[in-house]
Automatic annotation (TrEMBL):
GO molecular function: FAD binding
Classification via InterPro entries: FAD-bd, FAD/NAD-bd_sf, FAD_aromatic-hydroxylase
Record-linked SUPFAM superfamilies: FAD/NAD(P)-binding domain
Origin species: Planotetraspora silvatica
Domain FAD-binding: start-end pairs: 2-338
UniProt protein name: FAD-dependent oxidoreductase
């Protein structure tokens, strides 16, 4: 039985643990946080990823946790509605696509694996040393252990990637925008509704999902010129307050709530681009290897599919991890590249550069329901996403 250490207990890590266990491996998941990370933002599961979730027997549970968002409303500086659209179209979803909160999906995956997968919380990897008998892993808190393989499923700022491949600046490509999301009181009384207030170079949103008593605030903006420490949350909050200080609507109230938010998130909209995803007995999966950025809407789907393909490729290689890693990359790379292409085009509609562009967009949204060719226009919006989401065949291993 092959012992595999997986760093990261969000989406890719537990999914990989599930499928490795199915194939007879013995996975261990280590997570830096003291417990599962709750909260997060809305995420989509589409195309091939739905097939993976279905094969796990979790699709019904995932659908029960759907956000059930109904509508997106665009408002001006005074809160007046300027345009509206269905939540499905706003999220680029169609057919069986599912939207779920990241924390809910993480909980579902953990519940499906915790019975026969070892989880180590409140610890992280500090050193990796390849030896003839495997990889000697040094932990921050626990005793050192040796594993046959090590997998980095630890996100955009992957610790495993840094230890194995070097400085992250070589692999992280900033798309010129930042994102911040955090929980706020639902003072607008939103019910499965998303409110958006666009401004030149910036966009602010607030939404509340099904059965949620609070709401999420979301800020998208052109990357700031001011440098900041990604580990200094107070500095990031001050920077966000400065960037959005002059906006109206409910922005001042959202910024006031920011200071006490328990789950403040602030980071660049970036992609991870690497020439290879493995080195020796160490391999990367999900955002750590090929994060497409939140702008693509496909990070979760890539994580789910990548974990399935990696586990299956290792099983098919019958003990030859190098062959398994090569097969995994061969199958996944075209799928990754197709999905990463979505980010740049999506960003153009998410953060508009000028007031004129905003007026044009609002006008088109108001007109769309009345245009004779509206179905073709909607298809042009959703077709690239559908094509990317299905750009891989999920095969049996």
């Amino acid at each position: 039985m092959t012992n595999v250490l997986i760093s990261g207990a969000s989406v890719a890590g537990p999914t990989l643990a599930f499928w490795l266990r199915e194939h007879g491996f013995h996975p261990t998941v280590v997570e830096r946080a003291p417990s599962l990370r709750e909260g997060g933002y809305k995420i989509d599961i589409r195309g091939a990823a739905l097939d993976v979730v279905g094969r796990m027997g979790l699709l019904e549970d995932v659908r029960r946790h759907s956000t059930d968002m109904q509508v997106a409303r665009f408002v001006d500086v005074n809160g007046r509605q300027r345009a509206t659209m269905s939540a499905q179209l706003f999220g680029g979803r169609e057919g069986d696509d599912v939207e779920i909160m990241r924390g809910d999906l993480a909980e579902i995956l953990h519940e499906a694996t915790k019975g026969d997968v070892e989880y180590i919380f409140d610890d992280s990897i500090t050193a990796l040393e390849e030896r003839p008998d495997g990889v000697r892993v040094t932990f921050e808190n626990g005793p050192a252990r040796t594993f046959d393989l090590v997998v980095g499923a630890d996100g955009l700022h992957s610790n495993v990637r840094a230890l194995t491949f070097g400085e992250e600046s070589r692999f992280i490509h900033d798309l010129g925008h930042h994102i911040s999301i955090f929980t706020v009181p639902n003072h607008l009384g939103l019910d499965r509704t998303e409110m958006m207030h666009p401004a030149p170079g910036r966009s602010v949103g607030m939404y509340s999902t099904r059965q949620s008593t609070d709401a999420k605030a979301m800020f998208l903006f052109t990357s700031p010129a001011d440098p900041y420490d990604r580990r200094d949350v107070t500095q990031q909050k001050k920077l966000l307050a400065k960037i959005f200080a002059d906006l109206g609507w409910d922005v001042p109230r959202l910024l006031d709530s920011m200071w006490d938010a328990p789950d403040f998130y602030f980071d660049s909209m970036s992609q991870v681009r690497m020439d290879r995803w493995s080195s020796g007995r160490v391999v990367l999966v999900g955002d750590a290897a090929y994060g497409p950025s939140p702008a693509s809407g496909q990070g979760t789907s890539l994580s789910l599919v990548g974990a399935y393909v990696l586990a299956g490729s290792l099983a098919a290689a019958a003990g030859d991890h190098a062959a398994g890693f090569a097969a995994y990359e061969n199958d996944m790379r075209p799928f990754v590249e197709e999905n990463q292409k979505l980010a740049a085009s999506n960003l153009k509609g998410m953060v508009l550069k000028s007031a004129g562009q905003i007026r044009f967009q609002m006008g088109m949204l108001r007109l769309m329901p009345h245009l004779p060719g509206k179905d073709r226009m909607i298809k042009r919006v959703t077709e690239p996403i559908r094509k990317a989401a299905t750009a891989i065949t999920i095969r049996d291993y």
